[in-house]
Amino acid sequence: MRLTPQRRKSGNVLVLVSVSMGLLGVGLICGLSFCGLFLAQALLQNFANEAALQAACKLNGGNQSDFANGVNPTDRIGQMNNIIARSRAAVYESRKNFDEALNQSANSSIEALADQLYQSARDGAKTIEPERQNLKDVAQTEAIDEVQQQIAQISKFKLILPWIQVNSPRLEPGDGVTFGQIKDIHSNVMQLDEANKLKNYDQSNGYVHSNNRYKANQNAKLPGADSDLDFKFSSLQPPVKTEVSPARLVLPSAFEDVPTGDSPQGDIPSTVKVTMIMDVSTQLGVALKRQIKVVGIATTSGGSVMR
Amino acid sequence: MKKLSQTELKRDQRSKRGAAALAEFGPAVIAFILFGFFPLLDYGVVLIRYGIGYGVQNALTHRMGLAEKISNADSMLNNDNGWRTQLKKCGVKVKLTDLRLKVVNKSNLETQVLIPEPSPVPAQWQPDSIGGPFIYYLELQTNLDIDPLFPMTSPWKAVPGLTGPMTIAITTDAAWENLGRDSESLSEEFYLNE
After folding, report:
1. A166 membership: H or E segment, kind and range
2. Which of A191, A197, A275, B105 is the most exposed, fewest CB within 10 Å of its CB?
3. Helical H runs in chain B?
4. A108-138 pLDDT, tens digit each
5. Exposed (0-12), middle (13-18) or buried (19+): which is B17, by Cβ within 10 Å?
6. How far is A54 from chain B (nearest CA, A)?
7. Is the torsion defined by CA of B118, B123, B125, B126 positive or negative?
8. CA A100, CA A106: separation in Å to the nearest integer?
9. Which is more confidently placed, B97 or A155?
10. Does the distance separating the beta carbons of A240 and B180 come in below 8 Å?
């Protein structure tokens, strides 16, 4: 059929409008897809941060109501560090006393008493190390359980739009939850006072940091016959001026693996890293499937003031 | 025979002169592209670049809020030029940055103060003050020069967003996370009060 000139003119405009509208539509869908991706990534980051913070609170307590008064009601890592330091001092002191009793005392009952105290201190020190390992296991298990609970709460999350589908977030297989500590943070244990005979020995062996607190990630062995005992200090933000440092999110650059390793013999971690992934797919045009990966890192609350 | 009206008569005459209509259509399209499409595209690109600028700055502010010390946050802003380079590649130049610590009273949100960084936090606004508790935010204000898609040089004053860059002030904030004290320093001050 032959078209009149008038119809041909209208057809020109129709094609122009159709192409313009088509381009506008494609642009809008692309824009909405990008917005959807940003939204999904922001949501996933919030999930990871929340899970990491809750898990970190499990490691050493998270009730902040008493922190300003220097009290962390849980503080199990801090207390373990303090117990280790005091047990170490008790072994050293009782050993000294026993040696003095052997050399000076003619009274065998004093010698026996000194020996009893010494053996008791050693037994205590031997008991602490397995308990420390047990505490590490319990703290990590509770933290992982907390992350699993958080994941379960958000497992129903899905974002399904005609142009983009976002599946439920989940932990990255293998590295979903890892434990570590904050760089350059030593233990919460203050060096014992002047009356303690270990002061010079500890300083000469480099066990104490310049801030007068025991260095973390070291086995502060005692000299002589007691060198078979282990005294391991874990990293924990110390209380300063009667204030406990609250749990918080941290940057990936501040996180480090526990130098003594993940084995039970390693130190108790104070920081949790949660890695989450989420599948994003689109069927628009070409079928694409990608993963969004985010990392949330949080450190636990600090040690309490020793009372 | 049907009598044609004046308008119909004109249209009929124009349709018979197809070449003339085509000659009008071309300049009209060019005029539309020059004075309608390109300006709209320029402003649209400025809007998209504004969104990118806001997103990058917001991400930076949140990273700064997670820093260990306030000096680390300041260093991220001034010494780490990655975010400036990233923005420059997108046609956004960072002209001016202003970092402040916003302290808000938790029980009365209207009671707040802005402290320019780096400067000490007055005792009454510190976490251990009896006037607290407070919430601390890092607030970053920047002036961004956002280029249009087709920047032009002209002897006249540039039209922002059309022939020259549009200057936009953006303010973003993020909660300051580390409320502890620095056990390493002699003064044992708060990390936010170095």
Report:
1. strand A164-166
2. A197
3. 6-16, 18-32, 38-65, 70-78, 82-89
4. 788 888 899 999 999 999 999 999 999 999 9
5. exposed
6. 15
7. positive
8. 11
9. B97
10. yes
